[in-house]
Amino acid sequence: MDTNLNKYLALIRIAIGYLGEREHFCWWQSSFFTQGSSAFLSPIFSRTQLLAQYNGVTRAAALVHDERIGVGYVYHLFRLPEEMEQATHRLLHETQFVEHIRKIITSKVTALDYLRKNSTIQEQSAIGPTRVGDIQALRNYEAWKVVAGLYYVSFEKQIEILPYFSS
After folding, report:
1. 102 exposed, middle or buried (CB, 10 Å; 0-12, 13-18, 19+)?
2. How much is the average pLDDT of 94-120?
3. Whole-number pLDDT of residue 13
């Protein structure tokens, strides 16, 4: 599995997960990245707090995506094939990578800026579930840049676009 793709997936997942929370765009009702949440999580997950936040926001976002897109032979940023999930999860045990992530989610503006700079932005007319490609495209870095661009456009225009891959 491509390490660069795994890092990119983890970074856009956490940026989009952060932006989708209640305090920002309110796509899902979680608040894993608020100060109150940090105060609650830090005594319990002192060394793995970001991993706990990542897992929590991933689950919250997956529920919303699954409800709107469906489940089955469908994948999206918050529900990847098992080997991709494990690869991104392992990255969150690397101290240097965690510090890089923390810089991206310091504010709404910083997270949006990260998405803007690290995506392929296309004009989008569709709203709601939007098919990006087939299952083979899941391992295509450029396809994921399009996914990030779709989320960026949706946040900027305050519309809901939910990119997914299916057979």
Report:
1. exposed
2. 95
3. 97
DSSP 166: E
Is residue 61 helix, strand or coil? helix
Which secondary-structure segment (H or E) carries 87? helix 82-91
Look up residue 86 and give its two tokens.
Answer: 């494990």
Question: How high is the pLDDT of residue 33?
Answer: 81
Question: What is the span of the domain harbouring residue 133?
Answer: 3-166
d(CA 23, CA 30): 9
**Structural Rg of the chain based on CA atoms:** 15
| Gap between the terminal Cα atoms of the chain | 20
Spatial strand order of the sheet with 128-133 comes to 74-75, 161-166, 128-133
The structural domain count of the chain equals 1
Dist. CA 36–CA 5, nearest whole Å: 32
Query: What would the pLDDT profile of 30-52 be if each residue is shown by its tens digit?
Result: 887 877 666 555 555 556 678 88
Map 94-163 to HEC letters. Answer: CHHHHHHHHHHCCCHHHHHHHHHHCCCCCCCCCCEEEEEECHHHHHCHHHHHHHHHHHHHHHHHCCCEEE
Please state the separation of Cα 165 from the chain's center in Å. Answer: 15
